[in-house]
Backbone:
């Protein structure tokens, strides 16, 4: 008797339990999905919010917003050209400096250095990536920019620029087009587009070099050893075997660094000088999108605030595209490996 | 033959020397930046940093900024950790190799390096502006808004590490639990997350290191405050924000205070990355 009495409720309990589990399972699934969608929402939201905030500026100026170099809060005229140019040129200089150095670091750490040295040096370089950008900014403002103004800038202006201190044009400035304009400046301080580019380069070197090092290590050893067995030198293996094999990921790493450089705010704001006018010289101060927003947003009202939001939207869209390309390139190597 | 051989040897030697020089340049800049931060920071260290608020200006300290930084970071990590861990779990356990999962993983990687200043403007639009409207015009920057902005920056870091760490958990563990009839949610919460715990904690620490130096998004969200504020609904100072403000000040004494703040932030961040590295290396050993 007692056996049958407990048998029926037992199946009941079991069924109840499995139903409860199924309900919890559904709830849990929805909860997880909701959290994952927040990632999506924050991307869309950032784009949407800045576009919405910038609608007045886009509506008032239309396409002229992109090509006008005027930024005049007094007359309520705003154009994006100066900050866009500053962002592009500083990032370009940063890449010009950072890519060869990062490649050198990656080659050294994956092919040349003695094994015991590789991990500590790689960790030290990656430490650079962890330092907050505001520290780079302070170092740039108080240490590097004065150093640059005292020791590097005079040499550049007198040997390459079209406005040398002693009034005598150098051979380069006279005979090579553009160079004189690029390095001519009568601005007395260090803060300039070139310094911002250099500080940015130092910031993105650890990102690019660690991506390069990682992908260099994915090259199959037998490929490299075959080349060595045929008598290749270390450099020939790096340049003719390792680099072609990892090309797409290397480009991805470079674009990742570019994405960082474009959106960087603090390091650039400190050393760019924040001048809202266009100058051909790399030694003159300038402005970037991020530095303009950081400097002006708190006090901006009305159309100026909207123009800053519109700038932020441009920045977001451009970095999104750059990072998209970076990830797609990085993924190409991963799929080649069958991951 | 020998001319070609010589040229190849010279090219190789030159390239190897240059690669070593590149590494030295990288290390030199690291040493230069750290050295200046240490030198200027230690020179400016003083007990009043930790006892006085910024309202005293040159004679003040950074107490309110440190408290503000702690509160804002705490809010940021507090929001980002549960959302990030759950989202990462979804990617690894429920949506691995599905189309939506792959695209969210991809977009999360992009969010990882999205410009932080835009995130600040986003939070300004969704939190500061509406709360301004609710309080009839007085602009309500708040520590809470700053925390949300930092949460958006910490989120992708946590999602990514959780995702990666869970995918490292051997699938035999899942199969063993499922064959015993454990429902999947229980398996996920009680077995998988526990197995990947130290990796997930590392991710949270890395995210904390990342946000504790963030300045740009705080300028338009937490704004700054010269007095002590504990209430997250008030304007709040933070170390990066006060560094930015003081470094742009013409006074030398202010610069010293900024360096002291920079020193504190750098030490905190480096300590965090050191600790997370240690945790990660320990787990690697235990898995082998």
Residues:
């Amino acid at each position: 008797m007692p056996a049958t009495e407990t048998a029926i409720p037992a199946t009941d309990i079991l069924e109840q339990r499995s139903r409860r589990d199924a309900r919890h399972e559904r709830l849990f699934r929805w909860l997880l999905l909701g959290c994952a969608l927040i990632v999506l929402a924050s991307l869309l939201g950032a784009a949407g919010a800045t576009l919405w905030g910038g609608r007045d500026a886009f509506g008032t100026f239309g396409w002229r917003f992109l090509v006008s170099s005027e930024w005049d809060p007094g007359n309520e005229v705003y154009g994006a050209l100066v900050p866009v140019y500053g962002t592009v040129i500083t990032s370009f200089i940063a890449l010009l400096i950072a890519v060869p150095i990062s490649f050198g670091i990656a080659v050294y750490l994956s092919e040349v250095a003695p094994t015991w040295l590789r991990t500590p040096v790689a960790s030290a370089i990656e430490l650079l990536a962890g330092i907050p950008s505001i520290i780079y900014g302070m170092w740039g403002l108080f240490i590097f920019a004065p150093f640059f103004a005292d020791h590097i800038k005079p040499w550049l202006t007198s040997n390459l620029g079209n406005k040398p201190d002693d009034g005598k044009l150098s051979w380069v400035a006279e005979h090579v087009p553009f160079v004189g304009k690029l390095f001519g400046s009568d601005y007395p301080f260090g803060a300039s587009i070139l310094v911002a580019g250099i500080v940015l380069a130092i910031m993105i070197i650890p990102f690019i070099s660690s991506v390069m090092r990682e992908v260099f290590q994915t090259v199959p050893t037998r490929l490299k050893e075959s080349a060595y067995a045929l008598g290749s030198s270390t450099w020939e293996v790096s340049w003719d075997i390792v680099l072609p094999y990892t090309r797409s990921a290397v480009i991805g790493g470079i674009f990742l660094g570019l994405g960082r450089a474009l959106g960087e705010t603090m390091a650039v704001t400190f050393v760019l000088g924040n001048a809202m006018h266009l100058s051909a010289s790399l030694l003159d101060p300038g402005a970037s999108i991020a530095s303009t927003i950081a400097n002006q947003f708190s006090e901006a009202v009305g159309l100026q605030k909207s123009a800053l939001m519109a700038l932020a939207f441009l920045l977001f869209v451009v970095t999104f595209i750059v990072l998209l390309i970076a990830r797609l390139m990085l993924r190409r190597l991963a799929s080649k490996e069958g991951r | 033959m020998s001319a070609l051989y010589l040229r190849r040897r010279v090219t190789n030697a030159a390239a190897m020397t240059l690669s070593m020089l590149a590494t030295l340049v990288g290390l030199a800049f690291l040493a230069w930046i750290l050295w200046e931060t240490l030198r200027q920071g230690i020179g400016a260290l003083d007990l009043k940093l930790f006892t006085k608020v910024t309202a005293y200006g040159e004679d003040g300290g950074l107490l309110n900024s440190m408290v503000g930084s702690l509160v804002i970071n705490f809010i940021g990590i507090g929001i980002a950790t549960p959302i990030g861990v759950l989202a990462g779990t979804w990617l690894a356990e429920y949506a691995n190799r599905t189309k939506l999962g792959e695209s969210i993983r991809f977009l999360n990687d992009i969010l990882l390096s999205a410009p932080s200043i835009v995130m600040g403007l986003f939070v300004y639009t969704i939190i500061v502006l509406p709360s301004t409207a609710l309080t009839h015009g007085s602009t309500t920057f708040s520590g809470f808004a700053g925390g949300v902005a930092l949460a958006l920056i910490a989120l992708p870091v946590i999602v990514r590490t959780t995702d990666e760490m869970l995918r490292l958990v051997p699938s035999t563990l899942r199969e063993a639990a499922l064959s015993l009839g454990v429902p999947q949610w229980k398996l996920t919460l009680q077995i998988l997350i526990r197995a990947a715990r130290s990796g997930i904690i590392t991710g949270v620490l890395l995210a904390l290191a990342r946000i504790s130096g963030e300045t740009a998004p705080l300028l338009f969200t937490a704004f700054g405050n010269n007095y002590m504020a504990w209430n997250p609904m008030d304007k709040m100072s933070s170390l990066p924000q006060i560094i930015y403000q003081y470094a742009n000040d013409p006074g030398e004494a202010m610069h010293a205070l900024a360096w002291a703040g920079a020193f504190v932030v750098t030490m905190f961040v480096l300590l965090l990355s050191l600790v997370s590295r240690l945790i990660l290396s320990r787990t690697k050993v235990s898995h082998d």
Notes: The first strand of chain A starts at residue 71 and ends at 72. The mean pLDDT of chain A is 88. The beta strands of chain A are 71-72, 77-78. The radius of gyration of chain A is 27 Å.
